[in-house]
Design a protein that fits this description.
The structure is a single chain. The protein has about 160 residues and is mainly beta. The chain has one domain: Sandwich (Immunoglobulin-like). About 10% of the residues lie in helices and about 40% in strands. It is built from one helix and eleven strands, in the order αβββββββββββ. The protein has one helix spanning about 1-20; strands at about 40-45, 55-60, 70-75, 80-85, 90-95, 100-110, 120, 125-130, 135-145, 155, 160-164. Strands 1, 2, 3, 5, 6, 7, 9 and 10 form an eight-stranded antiparallel β-sheet that branches. A three-stranded antiparallel β-sheet has the order 8-4-11, with no helix packed on it. Strand 6 (about 100-110) and strand 7 (about 120) form a beta hairpin.
Amino acid sequence: MKRLLIIFCLALSTSILAQESNNFTVEVNIQANVIQTLELITVNTMTFGNSQPGQQVIYVNPVNDLSAGFMIAAGTPGAEFRLDYELERQLNRIEGEGFLIFRYELSANAIEDQSSSQLIDYQDRNLRFNEQGRYYIWVGGEVNLENAQPGNYEGDFTIEIDYI
């Protein structure tokens, strides 16, 4: 019992000396690794087919057009996220000079049902993965052909998904 009391007194005096000398260093390292996986799977690309003579605009409705692109976002079940994408993209003519401007529209749903999907405005809006960690996205939009040269056009569509 006496030995415990002496050890306690020595420890107490050591801490007092350290405080009186004002010469001590405290170092705290905190590290957190949060790993949330995220995968964006392209199931179908958007297709336009051929335009009709005199047709000025081609529109693919992401809610009900079977030509819409279809993607599945796979992430953490129940997690909230936001989608970010560019509203307009340039489509370049493959055979040479020329381009078209495509204006994108997205619709999305927590279930795999395009007809009940809702248009996603380009505003910050919180979305949530379903219980299986899935969220379904359809891609459509509009392109003006008024000044288009005949040929094939291609371009990339980039979508960002950020966990909240």
